[in-house]
Write a structure and sequence with these properties.
This protein is of the alpha+beta class. It contains four helices and five strands.
Length: 119
């Protein structure tokens, strides 16, 4: 099993929106073989809480334009790790310290990456 076309479309749109707000270390993993609850994890880093909020807003706006609404949001108040769950994809917006500490790339490194088409 691989990620659905819809999941890949949403992942690319989320990555583009995050990139537009200067997110760094943008990567996506096809976790469909490992998890039944979602197809793709999108990870990106923000430098500070205001930038992370801007990234979150841009991602939500872009995905809403594609007809996708988050089924769950977490971490908005703390501003260090924001999780946006769209069922098909989950977007993780992390502060650089949380990104390094939790190491989601290491956790999902056995999963294939999704080509996001970013420059």
């Amino acid at each position: 099993m691989t990620a659905t076309e819809r999941a890949v479309e949403l992942a690319r749109a989320a990555a583009e929106a995050a990139d537009d707000r200067k997110a760094t270390q943008i990567v996506a993993f096809d976790v469909s073989e490992q998890l039944y609850i979602t197809d793709v994890f999108v990870l990106c880093t923000g430098a500070n809480p205001p930038q992370m909020s801007a990234i979150r807003d841009a991602v939500e706006e872009r995905l809403l334009s594609l007809g996708a609404k988050p089924v769950r949001r977490e971490g908005e108040r703390e501003g260090r790790w924001v999780l946006l769950d769209y069922a098909d994809i989950v977007v993780h917006i992390q502060h650089s310290e949380e990104r390094e500490f939790y190491g989601l790339e290491r956790l999902w490194s056995d999963c294939p990456t999704v080509d996001l088409g970013l420059g």
